[in-house]
Amino acid sequence: MKILANDGIDPIGKKILEDAGFTVDTVHIPQDELVNKLNAYDAVTVRSATKLRQPLIDACPNIKVIGRGGVGMDNIDVDYARSKGVIVVNTPAASSHSVAELVFAHLLNGVRFLYDANRKMPVEGAVNFGGLKKAYAAGTELMGKKLGVVGFGRIGRETAKMALGIGMDVLYYDLFEGPTSLQLDLSGGLKVDVPVRQVELPELFRESDFISLHVPFLDKPVIGKEEFALLKDGVGLVNASRGGVIDELELLKALDSGKVAFAGLDVFEDEPTPRTALLIHPKLSLTPHIGAATNEAQERIGEELAQLLIASLKK
């Protein structure tokens, strides 16, 4: 049986599949060529780049399993594929820690102005050192502040644990009833339960000093014009979930007015061509959708995806 890893797979995952007797092809097939070539395979794995929509699924009846290396499956018509008897699997737990660490990279970046300092130091550092030092003198500590987590799945909870670990208070919103505490696994095998508080969205928006979003994009932004009005003045925002969860045009207005002190964005409405106004804004910390892009996460994703494919294809 042949598997196409169209957006790549970690070598560990590839070896597991080959040891199980599968042929694994990692040569990327462009999106517009898949309709003519995908049916030569029994299974396909993707990340976020390749789209598997209804017409492609119809054109490739030989595909028995679709694997998504990562969490979100908005690039796959999941319900339709399953209605046609195609097994669809993903790896929601494997990248949680890596995404949470990136959230805190953006938060720490924001409260100490690193996103701007790293732009200006190469240009002005030798001629305006004192001026830059003064410009970045009003930093903020995260300890003791409130982090609002929107969406309390695996990534949201991992983000909350990091916040608790550095002394932040955590309040969160989720559609379903969630925990009242989280267990922190500390060095030396020490385990500590720390309280968290579930609230409704308006309360989270009003109380949070910083907000991290961990929800899929549905039919409208989670933070749009009306929600920006509820936020604390000087709030910091991070979006490492999906583009469109924050209204980008309203975000630009809020950054310009000072309503939002800074924002960290790993995802964009118009990937892979984000708005220029976002790319050049002096109050934005930016990364190119790399939440799960660590060696450790990719190893875990590859291994978990391989095991899921083996179990599905050998049924």
TrEMBL record:
<dbReference type="GO" id="GO:0051287">
    <property type="term" value="F:NAD binding"/>
</dbReference>
<dbReference type="Pfam" id="PF02826">
    <property type="entry name" value="2-Hacid_dh_C"/>
</dbReference>
<keyword id="KW-0560">Oxidoreductase</keyword>
<dbReference type="InterPro" id="IPR006139">
    <property type="entry name" value="D-isomer_2_OHA_DH_cat_dom"/>
</dbReference>
<comment type="similarity">
    <text>Belongs to the D-isomer specific 2-hydroxyacid dehydrogenase family.</text>
</comment>
<keyword id="KW-0520">NAD</keyword>
<dbReference type="InterPro" id="IPR006140">
    <property type="entry name" value="D-isomer_DH_NAD-bd"/>
</dbReference>
<feature type="domain" description="D-isomer specific 2-hydroxyacid dehydrogenase NAD-binding">
    <location>
        <begin position="105"/>
        <end position="291"/>
    </location>
</feature>
<dbReference type="InterPro" id="IPR036291">
    <property type="entry name" value="NAD(P)-bd_dom_sf"/>
</dbReference>
<dbReference type="Pfam" id="PF00389">
    <property type="entry name" value="2-Hacid_dh"/>
</dbReference>
<dbReference type="GO" id="GO:0016616">
    <property type="term" value="F:oxidoreductase activity, acting on the CH-OH group of donors, NAD or NADP as acceptor"/>
</dbReference>
<dbReference type="InterPro" id="IPR029752">
    <property type="entry name" value="D-isomer_DH_CS1"/>
</dbReference>
<feature type="domain" description="D-isomer specific 2-hydroxyacid dehydrogenase catalytic">
    <location>
        <begin position="7"/>
        <end position="313"/>
    </location>
</feature>
<protein>
    <submittedName>
        <fullName>D-3-phosphoglycerate dehydrogenase</fullName>
    </submittedName>
</protein>
<dbReference type="InterPro" id="IPR050418">
    <property type="entry name" value="D-iso_2-hydroxyacid_DH_PdxB"/>
</dbReference>
